[in-house]
Amino acid sequence: MVRTCFHPKSYHSMKNLFALIFFALIATAGYTQGAFATFIDYQKGFFRPGDALKRKEDTLQKQFSAKGLSWPAKYVYIRSFKYDGELEVWVKNDRKDPFKLFKSYRVCALAGTLGPKRMQGDYQVPEGFYYINEFNPNSTYYLSLGLNYPNASDKILSDSLHPGGDIYIHGSCVTVGCIPVTDKQIDEIYILAAYAKNNGQDYIPVHIYPIRYSNKRSAAYLANLAKSDAQLKLHAEKLQNAYDHFEITHQLPVIMTTSNGDYVYDGLTKKVAASVEKSKRPAVQHRTRNITELADVVTQWPEFPGGGETFLKYLDKMGKALVPSLPDYRKKANIMVEFIVDTDGTPTNFKVLNGVNEEFNDELISVLEQMPTWQPALLNEKPVAKKMKQSFVIE
Predict the structure, then answer these.
(1) Which positions are catalytic?
(2) Which of 9, 154, 314, 339 is the most exposed place for a label (fewest CB within 10 A)?
(3) What is the DSSP string of 232-275?
(4) Cβ(158)–Cβ(150) below 8 Å
(5) For all residues of the chain together, what is the average pLDDT?
(6) What domains are there in the chain, each with its CATH number?
């Protein structure tokens, strides 16, 4: 089997060779972390991740604290943008919470072009929805996290005999089809993923997109390529549905694969899971502020980042993202909400004036609270708090 990211010249010491032999032997023998107290203890048994934990763990804890995050993260989500050359790590500590961005990393190199991976040797970085299925502490490329390529969709749509494989997020900053970062960066990503696995997250999602869809330059580049490639256009649009859902909700949709290899976003599974989860937890505490002065008349109204047209597009995407959360008997909902844009531009004190039911309205407010900061209203050139009402459709 051809290993996409293999580079034998990296092995220049007997120490590395013996480490690889040991790692292969315990894997072949069915060795598991059972002999260790935790998965983190198991990783500490290897030189590279053990050394990385000694050097990086304290720094990571301080970075988490500075961002108001609890260490270590119980849930990790990774997404990468091929054309933009970026990899993001999102974290949270409760299943019901929205993900928060911890850090963005620069991807060192890109092999191939935009579009999915379809065969061995095409040097393409895959595009789609994957999860980490391997922690390699003795990688050819320092440390690496393996992805489950080919996934269910790839197995249907890729070359049936030689779809390729061995796709990793790894160090050493070189690639012929993987997602490379620097050794210092993979230290952090590897540790974060290891702690999430240690805390019970067996499937750490990794979503790989052709572009960051909100980047106008990237979107223009993709649109130009897609003019002569209808399949590329269709593929990118299907992935964008999941991207938009996460951008609005900071939660992951339930993604499934049809018999013809298409990705679909299953709402029923999400609703059942949400219902079970809701029964186990106390009521959600939404963001509220004690605002004593509201301006009735202003010289400049609050402005959503990008203006009114961008706000309408945001609401349209949010409407599509929330369709799976509607009750089974509803396909459409006319919504009216009230909120305040405070003097610092923070949208707060959301109320649903016309909604669906208590559970849906609760989720709706949680999503609205992920809205970006506005430009506040002005009165005599001074920021003032202003109450807003907005109607939109979920369909």
Answers:
(1) 170, 178
(2) 9
(3) HHHHHHHHHHHHHHHHHHSSPPPEEE-TTS-EEE-HHHHHHHHH
(4) yes
(5) 85
(6) 10-265 (2.40.440.10), 268-395 (no CATH)
